[in-house]
Design brief:
alpha+beta
Length: about 1000
């Protein structure tokens, strides 16, 4: 109680301070980006975002480029004539043609070619020595330069960096020269004294002296400048020895000027020479304040610094806001600021780096106070009706509720119901007698009935309906539950439907109370996790109930203590469960509230989650987005009367407007940011042809065979949480499907085959909006020497030569064989054949001479027969050996000659058919010889033994199988004889010859039905 009282006193003191200042304090969340985050130095002289989306930070130790992940620093390199000549960068800006201007303190002005990373010196006419530049700015095609000795305005025509850099001066014409202007009589301000000079877009320049503002205004062609001075007192600004005044022209209205003194912001109408608005910034500044600055933001609003306090002034609403003490590092400069295209504000400091402030984080109003119900006293009246201090100290979230009439009901542990009516600020006390209890919970339902849950221990849990007139227990219902854990309230939340039934979220499931049931057994119904695992509750330990924003009579949403949340269908008891696997950041769901867009907001132990029931998607928020903390608490959630939502937790409480928070940003550009080979970042200038430009501008990557492991980094150029930006990519030529989205901003490849690939990348901003265009880069993987086309052609040629040589060798060998065969055939025919012919002739002649000796006649006859048979065999051998007979048509002719002679001699008819395509086939010597001899044996058998009248011979080709068939109509023979006796020597020889040439021999015969012999030879 003492702790809460002290907090209350602290809050009252803050309210008093607010009243005194009359300036609302709205702290803005900040992040510091300094040397630890990659900047080259903490002194930031200028900040800018270029047209591509990169953030640039000028420092006195080089120029820094930031992509949201890594910082690239450009500094002087004596070995590179195109490097940054001077590390003391005082100003940077970019014109509409994307010319990047860099000003330095010691070496002057330079144009920076980002695509080639080269700095080119620009010689400025009118600037002595080209040194001492303190600031530069560009509007349209005009460049304004401040230096320690002069201020100049240049018209830069249509200058583009692609032009010849040596002719830059041809495109730059001086429009205003401060040295020339100060030579005019009557007005001689001194620039070297540090007086402020400001260029207002178009044709106006302002110069501030200690007691005078000098206005320079040019005619249309900038040939003449009209000079006019305004004394402070003529503008209504009181000058005294304790005041200090600085000016800032209105960004959009040339007649309006803002003047800042040590405690006052005044809006001046220069044309009418009078003050039209005045704002007291703070009465605490009673002495002269020298450390002041004022600058216009990109939207025209003002940023004001007085000492270490920063104020924001809205020129449209005249609202002045104190941005709090967080944004007060020493050396912050209002003029050195930038608002990015993503709405993030960046501020430069003199030694602390850059300060990043995301205005979107202000949508979450974080209050870092204890997480009790003190907010009921401290919130603004448009959010909730405040409670008086007399009942403030006894509050907590579980013992206070507000009914539909706006009255607060509070249950005090000392035995009181307290009713507070904000409309007339009256308090009523209702003393009640409550037995000792462990836990209590006070709730007002949809039907404006007031309920109180009491846990008295020992199976004594009651739900009481309170009579709002006298605070008594109007109805009491004993909850049917066994022993429970008293560390937490058994009843955590309740909801009543249109039928006046009451649903209780408990530690033992969902309880349904029908208060009007006459049968006590039907008064309670309990839904737990015992039913079908598909439709039952996922957890019986529940934290909260939220009616469905579209169909409250059909569905309830239930949050559990450890198993996510679910949609409960009232009519059937079925549930649809959602958990971390579906995108919920944490399975502990303390509270669920719906917003006007029918989204559900869930508080967990890892931040807040917005669930869209129609799309079933989650958007999660953490302290990084501006929440008071990541760990929230039970009972601490409510919808405020202005539509804002409140969630409380360990770090305090957070209030926000869901509509503001869910505003989606546009898609942001994506660029490639770096290339690493074997984990070493590639410097494109020394990459030996890997890159032809910085990778953000490169069209292709060329890799050697030894560079097979490489990583490409990319970035979505929005400068919010990198954990909420997702990327996917695919490598065409390797894989045509996109990878799964991940927040990892790199793609790593290893061992790609030689070839050309195209890497496509796309990504989201922190709101999940995908970049629809994406980016791409060609990747050329060069082959090893043994994978090159010339090597493959060489190998192919070598193989061809080898094959040709082998062919020639085999051809030569075959020719030798052919010659040998032909010589053998000739020798057999000429030598042995002729001798055998002579023997045959003599034996035939001897037969004609009759001898009385029968033995001699028998021998002579035998000699003649054998000689004739050998001569015939010799003829077959000579025919087979002779290479002239290798074609199949020679075989056909010989077979036909033999068959015709035999048929004429034996008196049977012959039918011989063949396929015309057979003439193109070649058979080797063994195949021709054996086929012919098998054919000859078959024909002889038919002629000698079959007693046939007709023989049919066919030779055909079927699917690379040569088939020879000899069929007669003779007496045939029994198959059993063939099996038992093998058919004699003739058939045996036929089978052996077929086996020698890997052919199959089939004999089909039947007694008195003829015989058919088929030879099947598979051709290669």
């Amino acid at each position: 109680m003492l702790r809460i009282s002290l907090i209350f006193i602290l809050l009252l003191s803050q309210v008093g301070s607010y009243t005194q200042n009359k300036i609302p304090i709205v702290p803005i969340p900040i992040e510091l980006m300094g040397v630890k985050q990659g900047l080259s130095q903490g002194y930031i002289s200028s900040i800018m975002q270029d047209k591509e989306g990169f953030m640039w930070f000028a420092s006195f130790s080089g120029l820094n480029k930031y992509d949201g992940y890594e910082v690239t620093t450009y500094q002087n390199n004596p070995k590179d004539i195109y490097s940054l000549p001077d590390n003391m960068v005082s100003g940077i800006t970019e014109d509409e043609y994307e010319n990047f201007w860099v000003a330095t303190r010691n070496k002057g002005l330079f144009l920076f070619d980002k695509k080639n990373e080269r700095f080119y010196s620009v010689q400025l006419s009118g600037l002595k020595g080209n040194y001492g530049i303190t600031n530069i700015s560009i509007h349209g095609r005009k460049l304004f330069i401040n230096s320690n000795t002069n201020a100049l305005l240049y018209h830069i025509d249509s200058l583009k960096l692609i032009d010849d850099i040596t002719n830059v001066n041809k495109h730059m014409h001086v429009l205003f020269d401060y040295d020339v202007q100060q030579k005019k009589p009557n007005l001689k301000p001194d620039l070297s004294s540090g007086n402020q000079i400001i260029w207002q877009a178009k044709n106006q320049i302002w110069m501030q002296n200690p007691d005078t503002i000098i206005h320079y205004k040019a005619n249309k062609n900038y040939k003449n400048w009209e000079t006019k001075g305004y004394q402070f007192n003529s503008l209504g600004i009181e000058k005294n020895k304790h005041s200090n005044t600085i000016f800032e022209p209105h960004m959009f209205d040339t007649n309006i000027m803002f003047a800042l003194t040590n405690n006052r912001l005044q809006t001046l109408d220069i044309g009418k020479t009078k003050v039209i608005k005045s704002n007291i910034i703070g009465t605490q500044y009673k002495q002269s304040v020298n450390n002041m600055s004022i600058a216009s933001l990109r939207n025209g609003n003002l940023l004001i610094r007085i000492d270490h306090q920063i104020f924001h002034y809205n020129i449209h609403t005249n609202e002045l806001i104190d941005w709090g003490k967080e944004l007060t590092p020493k050396g912050i400069s209002c003029s050195n600021s930038w608002t990015g295209i993503d709405g993030i504000n960046w501020f430069g400091t003199a030694g602390f780096g850059a300060i990043k402030s995301d205005i979107r984080k202000q949508y979450f109003h974080a209050y870092f106070v204890p997480h009790n119900a003190s907010l009921f006293h401290t919130l603004d009246s448009n959010q909730i009706n405040r409670l008086p201090a007399e009942i403030f100290n006894s509050l907590d979230f579980d013992n206070i509720t507000q009914d539909q009439q706006g009255r607060y009901w509070v249950f005090s542990n000392i035995g009181l119901f307290i009713c507070y009516q904000p409309s007339n600020k009256t308090v009523k006390y209702f003393p009640i007698v409550v037995e000792h209890h462990f836990r209590s919970r006070l709730l007002n339902d949809k039907l404006d009935r007031l309920w109180m849950f009491l846990d008295k221990g020992s199976n004594k849990q009651f739900l009481h309906q309170i009579n709002k007139k006298n605070g008594s227990f109007e109805k009491s219902f004993k909850i049917p539950v066994g022993p429970i854990n008293n560390q937490l309230a058994f009843v955590r939340d309740l909801y009543s439907d249109d039928a006046q039934r009451v649903y209780l979220a408990t530690g033992n499931g969902l309880y349904l109370l029908n208060p009007h049931a006459t049968d006590s057994s039907k008064m309670w119904k309990i839904f737990q996790d015992h039913a079908s695992p598909i439709t039952s509750l996922s957890s019986k330990s529940l934290w909260c109930i939220c009616p469905d924003p579209i169909s409250p009579s059909k569905y309830l949403w239930l949050g559990s203590t450890s198993n996510g949340f679910e949609r409960f269908e009232i009519a059937t008891g079925k549930s649809v469960h959602y958990s971390e696997d579906d995108g919920l950041p944490n399975n502990v769901v303390y509270g669920i509230l719906s917003d006007h867009a029918n989204n559900l907001w869930l508080s967990t132990n890892k931040g807040l989650s917005c669930f869209n029931p129609s799309t079933k998607t989650f958007k999660n928020f953490t302290s990084e987005d501006g929440l008071s903390g990541d760990e929230f608490n039970h009972f601490e959630y409510m919808k405020l009367k202005n539509g804002e939502l409140l969630f409380g937790g360990i770090g305090g409480y957070t209030i926000f407007n869901p509509e503001e928070v869910l505003q989606k940003q546009k898609q942001f550009p994506i660029l490639f940011t770096s290339l690493s080979i074997s984990n070493k970042v590639v410097d494109w200038k020394h990459s030996n042809g890997v890159l032809d430009a910085p990778i953000s501008y490169a069209k292709k990557i060329t890799l050697q065979p030894t560079q097979g492991m490489f990583t490409i980094n990319f970035a979505s150029l929005e400068y919010r949480s990198n954990q909420k930006k997702f990327y996917k990519y695919k490598l065409l030529g390797f894989e045509n499907d996109w990878t799964e989205p991940t927040n990892k901003n790199e793609a790593t490849f290893t061992n790609l085959s030689p070839g050309n690939y195209t890497l496509l990348v796309t990504g989201t901003n922190s709101d999940g909006v995908w970049n629809t265009k994406g980016i791409s880069i060609e990747i050329i993987m060069l082959p090893s020497w043994y994978q090159t086309w010339w090597f493959k052609i060489g190998i192919a040629l070598l193989c061809m030569v080898a094959l040709y040589s082998l062919y020639r060798y085999r051809l030569s060998a075959q020719l030798k064989v052919f010659k040998v065969r032909n010589r053998i055939a000739t020798d057999l025919h000429d030598e042995i054949g002729s001798t055998l012919s002579s023997i045959a002739m003599y034996s035939e002649a001897a037969q004609k001479i009759k001898s009385e000796n029968e033995k001699i006649n028998l021998v002579i006859n035998k000699i003649h027969a054998n000689t004739t048979e050998v001569l015939e065999s010799m003829s077959d051998i000579v025919w087979a050996v002779n290479t002239k007979n290798d074609h199949l048509h020679h075989l056909l002719n010989r077979m036909r000659d033999f068959a015709v002679q035999l048929s004429e001699a034996k008196g049977f008819t012959l039918q011989m058919t063949d396929n015309k395509d057979l003439v193109d086939l070649n058979l080797d010597i063994d195949q021709r010889k054996n086929i012919y001899l098998i054919f000859k044996e078959a024909m002889n058998n038919a002629a000698k033994y079959s007693k046939c009248h007709h023989v049919q011979v066919s030779l055909r080709l079927e699917k690379q199988i040569l088939i020879l068939s000899i069929k007669d109509d003779g007496i045939g023979f029994d198959q059993a004889f063939l099996k038992n006796n093998g058919g004699g020597n003739g058939l045996f020889n036929m089978k052996k010859r077929a086996l020698d040439i890997n052919a199959s021999l089939n004999i089909k015969t039947k007694e008195f039905e003829g015989t058919e012999i088929e030879i099947h030879l598979i051709l290669n």
